[in-house]
């Protein structure tokens, strides 16, 4: 039987999961439990072509996982019969010291928990997910995989904020970068797709999902990335502002007397495309633009403007850039965004082929013009598979595919 890894991504009110075969790359099952703690929580599972959906009260993360396993039993079989060798936990923030995929024990949970001060929105739900999953599945090894890991060795000049050095050191303030699993996976896939050794490729990866980040990668190693100490910095996102003048936070706190928690919540949840246009899904944004909404048009223009600034910056950071790759929900599906991000860059060696760009294909593909010195690619990301492979390598180093 093929080995499987259960990959869990625990948020404050949701748990996303995927059961993956690390060797074959097949996703056996995936699903989500949303609105945990609500009377009308929603549990969804897709398994072997079957889709199940249940709406019911799910009090907490433990109830959510138990419900998930009940759904598994209902449609596909008990997890114990599905070759489960590990549970992989996506952990957003590893701080300075945690970056290797690591077998979780009590001491390690405490280390992740200790980083909660640095990542108050992200690490506590991960810790909760780990604790609950270890309780329910005590006989399977649990492995933590960090979203910051790929950027652990970001050059100091890219990782350092120009602020008081002592304060920065004391409070562990630096640019950590996020979406690392995706940037690493996609950059490796780009090298494979182009049949060029990763070590010889200078590339820009644009992870444009609900969260969004860009990275500049030289020879497989990141040299810059747009997210910083938290996942708020950089590109305009679905609900996050991306780059802002920090002065506006002081202004809102001091003059508008808005509590700091509320400012944080606004910048995370009610900003970005949603803040400007009232929607954060790009399919809805385009509909609103087509219907004549000037707010939606402005949101789109602000989004594209920021994206182009980062692309320009990373072309300058890398110098000779061999590939620009779009990935994640928007990057993989939205031909308008890809076109508008790169239009007019032919003098910089980047030229998109409109016809290829418009193709509704789902698989990895080239969308640049034949004579474009910089290749432009669309490559589907697969963070779950990357996490599953990292876990399999930890659990059984000799047997890992290690692709
Ligand atoms: P992700 O965070 O990678 O799952 O991306 C989710 C986002 O991708 C959604 O909020 C949408 O904005 C976007 N998205 C998904 N499908 C499409 C599509 N067909 N066209 C445009 N945007 C899409």
UniProtKB/TrEMBL annotation:
EC number: 2.7.2.1
Residues the record lists as binding substrate: 90
Catalytic activity: acetate + ATP = acetyl phosphate + ADP
One GO term of the biological process aspect: acetate metabolic process
Protein residues bound to Mg(2+): 9, 383
Keyword Cell membrane tagged: no
Sites annotated Transition state stabilizer: 179, 240
Pfam families xrefs: Acetate_kinase
Keyword Ribonucleoprotein attached: no
Gene3D superfamilies xrefs: 3.30.420.40
Compartments where located: Cytoplasm
Subunit structure: Homodimer.
Physiological role: Catalyzes the formation of acetyl phosphate from acetate and ATP. Can also catalyze the reverse reaction.
NCBIfam families: ackA
Family named by the database record: Belongs to the acetokinase family.
Protein name, per record: Acetate kinase
